[in-house]
Amino acid sequence: xxxxxxxxxxxxxxxxxxxxxxxxxxxxATWDDRIEKFRVPAIKYRSLIEVFQASGTEFLDQAKxxxxxxxxxSLEMSPYPHQxxxxxxxxxxxxxxxxxxPTAAGKTYLAQMAMQATPRTTLVVVPTLDLMHQxxxxxxxxxxxxxxxxxxxxxRDQTPILVATYDSAAIQxxxxxxxxxxxxxxxxxxxxxxxxxxxxxxxxxxxxxxxxATPERTxxxxxxxxxxIGREVYRKRAEDLAGTALAEHEIVQIKVKLSLKESxxxxxxxxxxxxxxxxxxxxxGSLKGWQMFVQMSARSSDGRRAMLAHRQAKEIALGxxxxxxxxxxxxxxxxxxxxxxxxxxxxxxYRISQELLIPAITHQTPVKERHEILTKxxxxxxxxxxxxxxxxxxxxxPAASVAIILSGTGSxxxxxxxxxxxxxxxxxxxxxxxxxxxxAEDTSEEGTSARRTEGRKNLQVVYETGSSSGLKVAEQxxxxxxxxxxxxxxNFNVTNGATQxxxxxxxxxxxxxET
Amino acid sequence: MATDxxxxxxxxxxxxxxxxxxxxxxxxxxxxxxxxxxxxAHILKNNLGxxxxxxxxxxxxxxxxxxxxxxxxxxxxxxxxITLNQVAQQLSQELNAEVLPFQVRxxxxxxxxxxxxxxxxxxxxxxxxxxxxxxxxxxGVFYKASQLxxxxxxxxxxxxxxxxxxxxxxxxxxYIEGDADxxxxxxxxxPTSLFQPSTRYGLAIAKLIPALLHVTKxxxxxxxxxxxxxxxxxxxxxxxxxxxxxLVSHYSPGKPYDSMLEASFADKWDALxxxxxxxxxxxxxxxxxxxxxxxxxxxxxxxRIFLLEIVGYWRPEYLKKKFAQVRRANRDDLILAISERLNxxxxxxxxxxxxxxxxxxxxxxxxxxxxxxxxDR
Lengths: 515, 377
Known about the structure:
A: alpha/beta; Rossmann fold; disordered C terminus; B: five-stranded antiparallel beta sheet
């Protein structure tokens, strides 16, 4: 009788020594010459234990750093049907899997239910500091007897329930790996990057839950979630839940013309760029063309000038005066409703904040101040808020009824996430949330927006003219056109006073009525 | 260009980071060497420059007051002017000093990084700057490294010790082959590299390079993993470097001797007339999961070789680890010189199963005592 095999955890891996009898475990282990012992990837922990149990192999588990907890919830709600169904599906999949629910469908409470059903040390991983504080607040309220801690944003707690950012959890993956039995990945599409995936790979956690509204990634890596967490066990779209957990919503697109000066400069810059592209026979239509452009721009003065022109043109389109004017009007129109303004870049955030004295949140805002601003916004002390990407995901801002996107990029995820902000069910009952998207006409932004809104039904398009005064623009906004296709080239320009009749009043899309 | 940039930074003291950045981008111009300029500027700005918030009024306090007031009116440029005026008046009264609306406006976000002021600067020489630049360019290559294979030959123990100290600090693992005469092959990566090549350890490997530059003779091959942007597949590449590369480290060098004890022993040996040559180019003794680096190597013209390790440090954990290492190394050509002052019993160390030979010494280790043990063999 040999010595009993001992399993230990070493920086994201397991060491198995002395080797057990039998062969079935060999499929999972690799001989490591450096330490002259067998090593097993941490993520294979559950499989290895199952193999040992099946063959009745005796072993000593010194790897396991997690333990059971007594989780008595002080916060209990009656779950929505989709929450109970999702939990049942996850349990049936041996507590390993991904649940896809739209942004406001109560994923945090579902996670709480999963924790109660699997009462062991738990690591929750979230993409932003805002979400981290939100989960922290929820879990401390739900489980007051258990110590809940934070990892990230300056905190480095070591607690049986820990909320961490993806960044910090990835950096600490080697030491976190054996301490938690249950891993919960919020917005789990963040997990399959080269940098973040180690959180799952270096962990022995036998139970894993992924949550996301939009797990799909443009790079196709969402397929890896099956290995890192488990297969998709449940999915519901916003449309499936509309009216139950979510507020109804409506999307209005406003097209802004560049001022004469802006559009002249814009055309000049685009011309400079296109001349170069033509000379170099580059087409920007594909990723490859874009890469060629980037390469060429580093090789010649001409190319460099063309790249700078491209950037300046983009800046004009992003920050056009007209957008600020439309924004001022929308703010006036919806004052004092709770309004969220999103922009693509920090410079515009601060420009708006400074010119219109609206509180701002960017990645540069200190965590404490960010928390204060959000609290004041929720309590109604502040009625509007301007933010860049930081508020993209799942930040709970229940009272916002209007969202304005000033300029954005064309990823599907960002759009859904931003929508989720105003879709949250507030205390106000079924309010009609509105999402405005303000884009510059005749610029590359149009294409971006078209890609984003493809296939959406509840969308209408409004045109604004550059020359009109503030008041008139506000009036024009009352005339709205429904349009099946946002990327239609047909022009619905509204000139001062004179309105053209709308062509298509589609039967099944909502008509906008201003009050 | 380095001189120009250093002067440029020196002259920009007192300006905001935003202004500095836009001046830098003008300085880059449309010339194609902008990457070099940007890289040099990055080092000057981030590693050597200091930026601070400069505002007579506390920006978070200003924001709180301004936004508390601005919420009362519909946002517009007109109401902005009114609000700024009101806040300025309030503050003037409270502080008993005149506060102007533009100060409120400018102070509102004085704590943003682009509004921070460039206040001081550790001015480097142009040569320092270029050394640092060259090194960081090379370090950048290693970010993509999944493995480093190092060939080292004829180096003193202090240099190895420094290298392995950093190796441990950055949580890397090493596999060592070879001997002192032919040189060592040291393969460096991390725990999970066993299953698949991972660039996770690239940053740690990059940080090891400045420590490696303090080792006298070496050459290396790094295995690089890069993602092909067209096909999205991983590609494997190689990068080589050696001790003749001319790069200059900014880490502080290790000490040639760990202790006075070693230094004085080496001096005394030199004074001794013996066929035995005392070498500092030692053997690395691989131990599973670690490495032992003895202090000296004794070489006789007839081919006999011994390794000498001086144990003079008293801390119990150190002693325990040292003797565990010696036991695992299991070398019979190892001579341990142990101070009689050490309380080995208290440290829980037993000497009955220690391989090799032992020399006891009181205050100083004498070469004669070591030779006596060798002759007894």
